């Protein structure tokens, strides 16, 4: 039996699966596990099943000890994990791609609709108790049909968002570091462009790239200035891909029309400049938050940990 430490609450089915084979120590407090408690608990762990709220760095790996074999992140994004520190210690790192693709694309599209059709504004107005009535010019938004979606990062979630956009009658352009299967881009009638062209032609820019040094503040003042003044920015990827200061300024000055955000630079803090504005829809990192998806993520993380513990190749190693 190996010792498996789970750093936060995850669906019971995954805990049971781990418990069938191993000794599981799962944090079940209502708050996130504190750093000190985490460092203490991981001592002697053979596997760590981590949530994206926990930083898995050299300090944590060393606190676990040299017997540690696997860090199984319950997320597709793994910017909370120092992958090279894992590699240097012979620890396999894994994530949960695929199972959250549709849920996250749904939230991206939800934000596109919230921002372009001013849904949050409408809801806030009703709840405020203020008088309102139907009017020809009341809370007018922007239509999506015939407009262009620019997908930054055309992996699974970017493609799934593009598929939804196509169903809404949008044209697709995308920017991607890697070649995308031509049958997929043909099906979506999607045209590959560089970021400059994408920013210039898109009516909605949706971010789906991973976060890392190469994408830190990928969208800053200069990129926002390159967007159409009628365009919207949507971020369901990671907060620090966008320079929030610059975004708050662009939204306040209306150099872009609006934005929809599910992620923030310093979660759970939201930039105060954004909170004041009506032309930004704000969600609390809900991309993968469905019962089905979170269960599938936890089960995949459990499968990843179990495979490594039994000396097998895990289903989703981080490349
Ligand atoms: C959620 O943000 C994830 O990366 O899975």
From TrEMBL:
Enzyme class: oxidoreductase
Enzyme Commission number(s) from the entry: 1.1.1.26
Keywords linked to the UniProt accession: Oxidoreductase
Annotated ranges, domain D-isomer specific 2-hydroxyacid dehydrogenase catalytic: 4-317
Domain D-isomer specific 2-hydroxyacid dehydrogenase NAD-binding as annotated: residue spans: 109-287
Top-rank taxon: Bacteria
Family that this chain belongs to: Belongs to the D-isomer specific 2-hydroxyacid dehydrogenase family.
Stated name of the protein: Glyoxylate reductase
Organism (species): Arthrobacter bambusae
